[in-house]
Predict the 3D structure of the following.
Amino acid sequence: MNGSTGYRAVRRCNHSPPRLLDRARRASIMTPRIVAFLQNTWVRDPEKVRAVFERNPQHRSQLIRRLLFRGSLTGRRLRAALGEHCDTIYWEEASPEITGTPSAKVTADTEHIRCVLSAQDPDVVLCFGRIAYCAVEPLWTGALLSAPHPAARGAHVVAALAQMRRELERAPVRQLTMEVAA
């Protein structure tokens, strides 16, 4: 309980809720809201990046996007496969843990994933890699597309990412049910 107010302290998600667009603007865009989960962020200096994330929790997805598309193999393959979709996807990790090597094995944080899904309310969820898929699949009942992690070895990876884009092009777009003020 929180002092004399009688309210219990609740852990808040640090994920910005989706911006609501008016019907005309949403109709002109007609693109699905997409959340994508990778395994976890890895960088050469995890302490430095962790500090940036802690100072800017409201910009988490943008920070992940910057790290992802600044020249990594994962980012290059995602950009090649998904094209312009990369700019509108809400990028997240199955685990908020930041590691110093790509080979580090971290477990997915289901509470973190649940929080992201609730805050973003996507039309489609993309999972890259087994860790992300196995964590998201039991938590999400909507449209779910899965592919191997983009940095995985094998010729099948590029083909699977291309198939994901084709599926994404056919993804359902939620109809707005908001009332428009007269």
